[in-house]
């Protein structure tokens, strides 16, 4: 079953860096952001999630995971608290962001549906194998809410 996050996001500047914050209530200058999500696999405190942004706000998925779910994306040093110490030995202290656009779909000329699928990047492939997740089975999974468990 899938769930959704509906949370307003507001742009702020923090330490000279532009970023977004998730708000519990709508306020002036905020924009509503909606994300559908579902869980695919677990390993200890980590979970693999399918995320589908319904709106397209900057850093929407990263803010929704870190703020609404209290589950920052692995390697997200901007919106998360970094990695839990227990994963440093497994992944390294400077592990890249584990956010991947597995499948993109859009309508092209003539209203033809175009679908583009990309393989996992090497750092995520390594992480999945280290966690014991079956990479070939996960790559077969259509990360689309129409096929969500």
Give an account of the 3D structure.
This protein has 149 residues and is of the alpha+beta class. The chain has four helices and six strands. It has helices spanning 60-68, 85-91, 122-131, 135-140, and strands at 3-14, 17-22, 31-43, 46-53, 103-107, 113-117. The strands form two sheets. Strands 2-1-3-4 form a four-stranded antiparallel β-sheet, covered by helices on one side. A hairpin with a 5-residue loop joins strand 5 and strand 6 (113-117). The relative contact order is 0.16.
Major sheet characteristics: 4 strands, antiparallel
Tell how many strands the DSSP assignment holds: 6
Strand content: 25-35%
Gyration radius, rounded: 16 Å
How confident is the prediction overall: mean pLDDT? 85
Write down the overall geometry: globular
Show unreliable segments: 143-149
Q: Main sheet: which strands, in order across? A: 2-1-3-4
What is the SS-derived class?
Answer: alpha+beta
The level of helicity is: 10-25%
Distance between the termini: 6 Å
Annotation field: number of helices: 4
> What string gives the helices and strands in order?
EEEEHHEEHH
Entry keywords:
149 residues, alpha+beta, four-stranded antiparallel β-sheet, two-stranded antiparallel ribbon, 4 helices, 33% strand
Give a summary of the structure in a few sentences.
It is built from 4 helices and 6 strands. It has 149 residues and is of the alpha+beta class.
What's the structural blueprint in terms of helices and strands?
Blueprint: E1 3-14, E2 17-22, E3 31-43, E4 46-53, H1 60-68, H2 85-91, E5 103-107, E6 113-117, H3 122-131, H4 135-140
